[in-house]
Amino acid sequence: MSPHNVLSPRQKALQINLDETIYGSFAEIGAGQEVARHFFQAGGAAGTIARTMSAYDMIMSDAMYGETGRYVSEERLISMLKTECSTLMQRLDLERGESSRFFTYANTVTAKGYRGAGNYHGWTGIKFQQNPGEEPSQVVIHIKLLDNQNLFQQEAIGTFGVNLIHSCYYANDSMEHFVRSLMDNLTNERILIDAIKVTGPAFRHMDDRLLSLELVNNCFTDVIMFNDKGKVVQHSEELYKKNIVALRGSFRPPTLLNMEMLQKGAEQFRNNLPEDEGENIMTLAEISMNRLIERGSIDSADFLARIDMLTSINQPVLISHFQHFHTLSHYLSDVCRRRVAFAARVHNLQDIFDEENYKNLDGGFLEAFGTMFGKNTQIYVYPEKADDEDMLLASDSVTLSAHVKPLMEYFKNHNFIQDIKNFNPNVANIWSRKVVEKIEAGDSTWEEMVPASVAEAVKKSNLFRSN
Questions:
Q1: pTM of the model
Q2: Most buried of the four, 11, 115, 131, 287, by CB within 10 Å?
Q3: Is the residue at 152 inside a domain?
């Protein structure tokens, strides 16, 4: 990773102010005009700022940007950017369009107020011209505000907004540089970035999905999500009030067993939910970062291939920093506000009950189990068959120490852990690594082990071949 020279917000704002080609407007809602303030205080703002806007009143906001169901939303941000950019260019393009690189910065934020706690977050973005007369490029970002005081949240928003504008003009040479610059003078204890989308000529060399991966890789977020079409989405909006069935794995490639586990896990989960919640289930294929770097480093092409293969079967994907089941379970429960279940294999269950995994916790494995099962998380165990054996292994085959066995019995007796009964034994010994081995050996029978659309994706992109 190359050295990164970090400028202060004032230095960044001043650099922009002194560039006679950069000229634009600001529209900020929900946390003051903290971004524009930096440019005014840096000096020379008259050469940069055409106007600033802050429509707090809902009627005024609707009159300017159109009606919306939610004022702190991606939809509202995009309407702000579109309206402000259009106004700016219509009024100023004739006079200074040949020499100016126009921009419109906007944010819509829920910050801490006088009335108790809440979910402090916001959408922030920019439309800008990299070169005069060029079609505008766009960045849309969702952030979570973690400071516990309004003043600190405002400061963080101001710094982040300056970083965003500056990064678009001075740090878009690479994805790594662009993402790191967004968090200059900030930490992940103040702000998390959990969704980023870019479009336009300034980002022809970038991919939303790889930018999102950079966020996780740099610990700027815990989770990123792709919907069933492979598009970057803001996960808390997608998962809110959904009952979740998650399958953890490498999905290199996704197999018939993977799909069977999610399907059968969801069916059994549905039978354990209240009748009015039975259809409100989302399945997730989750890949932890340690799975992406298990071969030494992150391979961008390999990562994109996994996303493409999973979305070819319309499967939403979650990428997370969580190594252990209990931390992922706790996170998902907080986000979805409903029930969480895992489809797992026997060796996963063995790993969950391995005390060594929790030796760094103050409360040891009891703390981990309390975190995991305290919100009624369930585990549905799919039978497992060893490579060269016919016998199917279920949850009762897990090897446990004497003092842990009663815990397993408790969780099974209270239906926290259940064996999947309606299963297909013909797919029980399909492993992704065996599929890859067959592909490398030129054995075409691998196609019988994966969904048809995955097989097509593998062949089309010539994946997993050693030569």
A1: 0.91
A2: 287
A3: yes
SS3 content of the chain, % helix, strand, coil (to 5): 45, 20, 35
By C-alpha distance, which of 220, 232, 269, 217 is closest to 422? 269
Chain segment 266-311, per-residue pLDDT in tens:
999 999 898 888 889 999 999 998 878 766 678 888 899 999 999 9
Give the Cα separation of 438 and 303 in Å (integer). Answer: 21
CA distance 197 to 125: 9
Contacts of 422 (CB under 8 A, 6+ apart): 264, 267, 268
The answer to whether residues 215 and 244 belong to one domain is no
Helix 175-182 crosses helix 208-217 at what angle (to 10 degrees)?
A: 50
The closest alpha carbon to 104, from 122, 86, 117, belongs to 86
Is omega for the bond preceding 253 within 30 degrees of 0, making it cis? yes
User: Are 206 and 309 members of one domain?
Assistant: no
Tokens encoding 44 = 């020379």
Token code pair at residue 89: 């260019």
Q: Given the DSSP bridges, would you call strands 378-382 and 243-248 parallel, antiparallel or unpaired? A: unpaired
d(CA 159, CA 182): 9
- Under a CB-based contact definition with an 8 Å cutoff, are residues 258 and 249 in contact? yes
Residues 355-397 have pLDDT tens digits of 999 999 999 989 999 999 988 899 999 998 766 667 888 999 8
